[in-house]
Structures are given as C-alpha cells and as structure tokens.
Specification:
The chain is mostly beta strands. Helices cover 0% and strands 58% of the residues. The chain is built from no helices and 16 strands.
C-alpha cells in the first residue's frame, strides 16, 4: 500500500489547519514530502507539502477535483500515481504525481469504472495490480481487480473476486505473509485481505492468497 500514514473518517465541524470538514482518508507520498486528503464533502483532493518538522502547507494548487464522495486513497509503490475511489459515482479517479512538486494532475483517462459504492483501495507491493472493495449491492459487490500499466499507471479492470451476497466489503489491503522454509529457501507470498463489517455472520476479515515466492 502506498504511503506510511493513513487516517480514517476525520469528521470535523470546522476547518483546522486548512483540512476539510470531512477528511475521509489520507495518505502520505512515498518520498514523505506530500500529503493527500480525500475531502468527501467538497468532492476534492487536498494536497499539502510536509515541512521538516511535519507541518502542512497547502500546495500552490491546494485542491484537485475528484468524483462525488471520494473515499479511499492510495499512492503507487513507485510514487508516480495516486488513486481515489468515488463512492457516489462508482469510479476511481487516477492522477499522475509530479516528480518534483508532488502535485496531482488527472491521467489521460481520468476515471475507470468500479462496482457499486467503491470504498477501500490497495495496490500490490510490486505495483502491478490494484484492488477495490465495492461496499454495496448484491449483484456487483466483492473486490474488483485491476491491472496497472507499467508505463502510465493507468488501471484496467481484469476481474472481480466475489465475496457473497450481503457481505458489503469495505476495507482492503495487500500484505506480506511467510510460511516457513522449503529446502533452505524462505517461502512466502502476498495475501489480499478485506473487511466485511456487515457480514450475515458478523464482522469478519477474509483473505485470498495472491501467489507465492521464495527467497
């Protein structure tokens, strides 16, 4: 997952330090110099420079447009792309990250389709795939999977992982796991995790193995 700091659902009644009243999700750039906030109420992404002491200063262009009800945000592992799910439009907005300033600009194809009410978004550690939790709707809920173009960072839908009727997946992550050793080599892989807060059998986290590797 891109960035090292994440914050969920900071619903404030007034603006503090220039941050939106409904800052739903936040992520720090890979180089640690920029911070991006999904402003659910304003349908924008606020972007900040991070000072040496951790202070935030709005960039020259303080906000960029997103879709309606921007929800989950992520930066690609190479730091070149930024993505946000738009819960009320069933899309992902995708942006290029300026290598010098960290400022966002829409990609040539600015949005891609998702399932119904996209929420959390994650990218595999190798940067080749993205995953989106579609949180509503029995017909198209589940986790959407995308290929990430190695050059442009653009997303292309490649499949959907069903999670079952009424599960309403929200959060999603890709994590490293290790299974021990095989003939002296360390075996492991990546797992996709998603949160189902409204599962018929109670809140739970489910996982899916994405592949294995040896070191």
């Amino acid at each position: 997952m891109g960035g090292g700091v994440r914050l969920r659902e900071d619903r404030r009644s007034s603006r503090t330090g220039g941050i939106s009243v409904v800052a739903y999700d936040v992520v720090v750039s890979i180089d640690g110099k920029s911070l991006y906030v999904a402003d659910m109420q304003d349908a924008t992404i606020s972007q900040y420079d991070i000072g040496a002491a951790g202070s935030l200063t709005p960039k020259a262009v303080a906000t960029v447009p997103a879709g309606r009800r921007p929800h989950g945000v992520v930066v690609s592992p190479d730091g070149k792309s930024f993505y946000v799910t738009n819960e009320a439009e069933d899309t992902i907005s995708e942006y290029d990250v300026d290598s010098g300033t960290g400022a966002l600009s829409p990609k040539a194809i600015p949005t891609v389709a998702t399932g119904h009410c996209p929420a959390g978004i994650a990218i595999s550690p190798d940067g080749k795939n993205a995953y989106v939790a579609n949180s509503h709707g029995d017909s198209d809920n589940g986790v959407s999977q995308y290929d990430v173009d190695a050059i442009s960072g653009a997303l292309t839908l490649s499949g959907r992982i069903p999670t079952g009727s009424g599960t309403w997946p929200v959060g999603v992550a890709v994590v490293d796991v290790w299974w021990g050793t095989t003939e002296g080599a360390k075996a492991g892989g990546w797992e996709l995790l998603w949160d189902e807060p409204r599962s018929p059998v109670g809140r739970k986290t489910r996982s899916l193995e994405l592949g294995s590797r040896f070191i």
